[in-house]
Amino acid sequence: MHIPWNLLRKFAEGRLTEAEHSELEHWRQTSELNQLIFDEILLDEEFKNQLNSNHWDDNAQHWDSILAKLKPAEPKIIFTRRKFYQISAAAASLLILMGLGIAWLYSSWQNRGFSENDFTYIYSPRGQRTQVILPDSTRVWLNSETSIRYLVSFNKKSREVTIEGEAFFKVTKNALKPFYVKTSDLRVKVYGTSFNVKAYPNEKYIETTLIEGKLSVIPNSKPEAPENEIFLKPKDKLKFPKPGMVGMDSVSTSVKKSLAQKNQDKKDMPKMLLSRNINSDPENLWKDGKLIFMDEKFGDMAIKLERWYDVKIHFENEKIRDFRFTGKIDKETINQAMEALKISSQNSYRYEIVFRDVYLK
């Protein structure tokens, strides 16, 4: 790993020439990992002192000493300007996450010259759930592999967030400023309520479940107008098949009722479908650390378990995918969960856990 120690030392001392500054900027922009290393080095006062006093050598022993300090913070939150940096698998050994308080963000806004076009980005990685309090006091729970993004000017003129993944919201009421949640294909307009939105990029559906209050859903392909808003009642679940990913036949068998829409062009937009008076525990309780399954195929459960425990599940026998389970996981480890599933299947399969891989035989 090439790290320009000399340039970093000069940067810390404020002695960079224009050419050296350009060279350092080029190194920072070469990869997201370089930027993260740069940020961590400048935040570590002890490390900077070693660097400035020439007590730092680019060798394995000294590099291991700084690596030992790069431990993930709780919760795993990143605030950045203009662009965000997702932590890739290749950079897992150098996971550097900065937990910055909202109070700090606002107090630094003026000093750092943030503009209204800058945004805050927060990411909850695999195996974790993260709670966020927005500037308007709205509470948001982010499930594993979920991100939320909003302008640093949030709540000044408007309230809008963009999510990818699954998030549970308890929105602070404000009749003058509706709360919007944007996903890849839908916008959710909220009037002060609690609800769940599930919009993982690799899944076929976007789901919105209303727990209490009032909200409406508007497809991104439609303008915001009263005739295009689909209103949900408490315990309603709306499933929206992503265009091009799901055929209409498979959708119609997965929900209880279809939602009739006026003047809908079926050729241009998939039909949105609604389930009424559902058991909302799976959408309501995951934020409390309870993973609930209701007559669910093991193949579908595996996706949730992988995110929940940060593991990879391998089906060495495809028949196991069709096993169905109903139950709740509450604070169990991956070993305990897999043992419980095996017993409830009458020991009809075996499992083996090797580090973060689970093999089902």
Can you walk me through this structure?
By secondary structure, the chain is α+β, with helices and mostly antiparallel strands. Among the domains are: 5-67, no CATH class; 71-182, Jelly Rolls; 289-360, Phage tail protein beta-alpha-beta fold. It has ten helices and 19 strands. The protein has helices spanning 5-13, 18-30, 32-43, 45-52, 60-67, 102-112, 248-252, 281-285, 298-309, 334-344, and strands at 119-124, 130-133, 139-142, 146-151, 159-170, 179-182, 186-190, 194-199, 205-212, 215-219, 230-232, 237-241, 257-258, 273-275, 290-297, 312-315, 324-330, 351-354, 357-360. Strands 1, 2, 3, 4, 5, 6, 7, 8, 9, 10, 11, 12, 13 and 14 form a 14-stranded mixed β-sheet that branches. Strands 16-19-18 form a three-stranded mixed β-sheet, covered by helices on one side. It is flat, with a radius of gyration of 24 Å.
Which tags fit this structure?
3-stranded mixed β-sheet; Phage tail protein beta-alpha-beta fold; Jelly Rolls; flat; alpha+beta; 361 residues; 14-stranded mixed β-sheet; single chain; 10 helices
What topology emerges from the helices and strands here?
Layout: H1 5-13, H2 18-30, H3 32-43, H4 45-52, H5 60-67, H6 102-112, E1 119-124, E2 130-133, E3 139-142, E4 146-151, E5 159-170, E6 179-182, E7 186-190, E8 194-199, E9 205-212, E10 215-219, E11 230-232, E12 237-241, H7 248-252, E13 257-258, E14 273-275, H8 281-285, E15 290-297, H9 298-309, E16 312-315, E17 324-330, H10 334-344, E18 351-354, E19 357-360
Parallel strand pairs: 5-6, 16-19
Antiparallel strand pairs: 1-4, 2-3, 3-5, 4-5, 5-8, 6-7, 7-10, 8-9, 9-12, 10-11, 12-14, 13-14, 15-17, 18-19
Helix pairs in contact: 2-3
